[in-house]
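subagent[fold] <- orchestrator: predict structure for attached chain, return tokens only, no commentary.
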Amino acid sequence: RVTIDKKYIEKSSKLMDKVAKFCQQSKMNLKNSPPYILDILPDTYNHLRLIMLRYEDRLQVLNECEYFRIFLDNLMKKCKEAIKLFREGRERMFDENSQHRRSLTKLSLVFSHMLAELKAEFPDGRFIGEEYRITKSEAANFWRTTFRHKVSAGTIIQWSIFRQELDKVHPISSGLECIALKSTIDLVCNNYISNFEFDVFSRLFQPWTNLLKNWNMLAVTHPGYMAFLTYDEVKARLHKYIHKPGSYIFRLSCTRLGQWAVGYVTMGGEILQTIPQNKSLCQALIDGWKEGFYLFPDGRQVNPDLSGLLEQSEDDEERITVSQEQYELYCEMGSTFQLCKICAENNKDVRIEPCGHLICKSCLESWQEMDNSTSPTCPWCRCEIKGTETVVIEPYEGDKK
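subagent[fold] -> orchestrator:
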């Protein structure tokens, strides 16, 4: 068991530096677009330095933090993988279309996911662990009630244990499905699942009741889904269909983990990429099909029908019943609980996650057009919006009298 100290962090720093030097070779001609490994590695080192600064007088806390130990072990392994790739690939690393170069791109995405996870678990350099807020309430409840009694499981759990527990509520049908599921959810490829990775997965394939059904339809059988693909690779892939408007593919956004990015060919022969806001991917793909934008997944003629998934999601919409106390409180203010407090015209029909504030859809969209934050924020509390949920508010019975 290694001791985590400044010396150990410097060892990981030297490995990252070695990878960076390989990537800086002029013949590599790396494009400065996400995930840009020459930004990711220094950012990772800087965040590790910040963590060490916060804990410099109590390093035993870091040594007892299982998540941090697993992270550092994985960081070193991934750096060694990258170094091995350069040593074995040699000249092939300079060919943007080679398999070795594709492997480096995938590693860049993994490093990007690792940095996002580290910043989520150590915001401002301080470990929050099980205090990390899982966006979807049902997913958060599953994680909390299932893993809280296991060692460090408030933050991270071995894949084998996670799989067994998930199978109890969302049956996993076969060994092949299990392998495919792991490749989707294990973003940092370390055989563990963190609360951060679980949060990302449950946001991508919402709602909770249809979690694995949605995942199967969208990530396993859908021809438009692309795993571990970057912005530039989406453009390159869609270029083949430049004369076939309506061709599209979708991937996990690497800059906004937990959201989708859809790339498509326009009528004018442009390739655009968009991140759907305030709607599930399923809804976005159906809307895009109706509007003529998303017609041919990866250029194919047959576009899967997702309406069945959407109908199930609508059946599962959460219904919020107004209590007598809420009814009386809002009566005193000359209003009703269900009325949106921004426009005072529409009923609230969206819950912002994870903060839980309620708002109407049109006010949320108007706010997001005005909001200049780097990440979308709640108009009430300014917390980051990681997801939204459509809700139906049922008035208090006394309201009808």
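orchestrator: received. Logging for downstream: The chain has four domains: 6-127, 130-220, 231-309, 318-394. The chain has 15 helices and ten strands.
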